[in-house]
Amino acid sequence: MKGLILALQFMTRVPINIGIDFNKKNIGAMLTFFPLIGFLIALFTFIPSIFLRDKISAELVALLNIIFYLIITGALHMDGLSDTADAFLSNRSKDRMKAIMKDPGVGSFGVISIVIVLAAKFFAFKEIALQGFKWDYTFVFIYSKLIAMNAFIYFKSADSSTLFKTFKESRSTFLINFANFVIIIASILYDYKVLLYLLVEALIFIIIYIISLKKIDGATGDTMGASIELAETIALFII
Fold first, then answer.
1. How many CB atoms lie within 10 A of CB 169?
2. pTM greater than 0.70
3. Which end of the chain has fewer CB atoms within 10 angstroms, the N or the C?
């Protein structure tokens, strides 16, 4: 239960005023709840699509989808996206890129990346509003968190990333693999075709990780946020 509460506090803006120690045991448990958090984020994001599709325009539904998404996540991954864009597109040295990622300010590349991703999400959500909500769409958000969870096993941490290192050192390989098994079996039982989204999103994560290795010698919390945003956005266009 502590892991679930910590996951909700870390990944969402659900107001839970319960103090949970940020230690290795609780962090390890928290990581295994990432896919569930992805599902809850999807449910909240798609509330307008589920209940308002026949009452308002598709454009307004899409806009509300984005607003609901930003409310539930607190734009957590958007921050990682902007930091990653500012650093990787700066054409600076590795040390300078690492410093840019730690800078709380947002540069021009960061702003541009956010605008592009939000615009892309708008058109994707608009198309979903026109087609009608399907439970398939929730897997896009589940898979992005599932892959992020696995990144703490398979991805190398950049020396500059305290957060990624902490998560990597705290993760429980057994619990993560068990979560993998549960999600894959659930996907097959629901409709094996949704696994296409998993493959697409995994490819995006791998591409960004390879770039991260070249740019800053490994993954960080920011590159994970960027990977989640880009993977979900691209996957939304193939559903």
1. 12
2. yes
3. N
